[in-house]
Amino acid sequence: MPPTNSRTFADRGTSAGDPDAERDRLGVGRAHGKAILLGEHAVVYGAPALAIPVPQLTVTANATRFLCPGDGADKVSFAMTGPASAPATPLATDGLRRLVAEFKEMTGVAGRMCVDVLIDCTIPQGCGLGSSAACARAVVLAFADLFARRLDARAVFDLVQTSEKVAHGRASGIDALATGSTSPILFRSGTARELPIPMPGDGPPHPPERTDGRADVSRPFGFDGLFVIADSGVAGSTKDAVELLRRKFERNAETQAEFVRRVSSLTHAAARDLARGQSSDFGARMTDNHKLLREIGLSTDRIDALVDATLAAGGLGAKISGGGLGGCMIALAGEPGRAQAVVRRLHEAGAVRTWVVPVGRFASHAN
């Protein structure tokens, strides 16, 4: 699902060029959360990264056009609401303001944009789960619906990136794509490839090997994919983490090269593990990636405690997910019974909330 090099958008109604027309018309856009399995931060420097959608964490943007006042300026307001009928609060971000200007220029909306946007977001902020990108994506799609513009994947990606670069200073683009994907993706340098999850009975392209080097055809092929996300309760800052690494790499280019090389190797190996249904090996790559992130200064004592709790409960692997310096940890638990044990241990270790994200044959075990 790589963005193409062309961008297409077209009117779908005769009034789309007149923002004062069809007042009170509603435009709706939707997106969801994401979690990075391997490769965060290194992806900014050209390494690959693996991410999964988190469909139970949703964002819906409702954009309503109103009659423009007579002062000649655009009037676009944003408000945020959330779970449990939370009251709407005004939202003013430079990223979303920039997005409005870029949308208008890209799509040729004539005249003024006078729109109220209400964003219903269930993705916690500062947790590395893609809240800013998902909100931006939902807003882009709501504007497209409201002004009857048909945007291709590249146009949506570019508009979300406009907001993300303002929000984070430097954005790889993985969040902009993963918050709209329906399956795991392998992302690198602005393009993404969907990774199908093998199911039992699927024939692996290369059967898993035993320790003696012979193919192991005795166990069913399929990826045991119950992931558990745990919120440490401390908000992280992707922008701060990106800046921390930038300064560190500027001081020592060899540190950057070694970090990117090792993360790239782990991510490529994990993609092969996923394709071959080798859950245990995949989990081990996650834990190894966490060690690299911890060594470079992006973990916290609380995140490390959650990783240790996961492994003690029998989890197959665990690591930071997202920017670090707080936020969330993600674990591969495998079987449903093991996932329940991991969730219990994580709460005992201080996780303030958890989400189970199933892939493949465990899709019915979400909670």
TrEMBL record:
Region (Disordered): 1-24
Keywords: ATP-binding, Cytoplasm, Kinase, Lipid biosynthesis, Lipid metabolism, Magnesium, Nucleotide-binding, Transferase
Residues annotated as domain GHMP kinase C-terminal: 271-350
Main localization (coarse): cytoplasm
EC top class, as a word: transferase
GO terms of molecular function: mevalonate kinase activity
Pathway note: Isoprenoid biosynthesis; isopentenyl diphosphate biosynthesis via mevalonate pathway; isopentenyl diphosphate from (R)-mevalonate: step 1/3
Residue ranges of every copy of the GHMP kinase N-terminal domain listed in the record: 101-178
Entries under Pfam families matching the protein: GHMP_kinases_C (PF08544), GHMP_kinases_N (PF00288)
Classification of source organism: Bacteria, Bacillati, Actinomycetota, Actinomycetes, Streptosporangiales
Enzyme Commission (EC) number: 2.7.1.36
Gene for this chain: mvk
Family: Belongs to the GHMP kinase family. Mevalonate kinase subfamily.
NCBIfam families, A to Z: mevalon_kin
InterPro entries per the UniProt record, alphabetical: GHMP_kinase_C_dom, GHMP_kinase_C_sf, GHMP_kinase_N_dom, GHMP_knse_ATP-bd_CS, Mev_gal_kin, Ribosomal_Su5_D2-typ_SF, Ribsml_uS5_D2-typ_fold_subgr
Organism: Actinomadura alba
Subcellular localization: Cytoplasm
Protein name, per record: mevalonate kinase
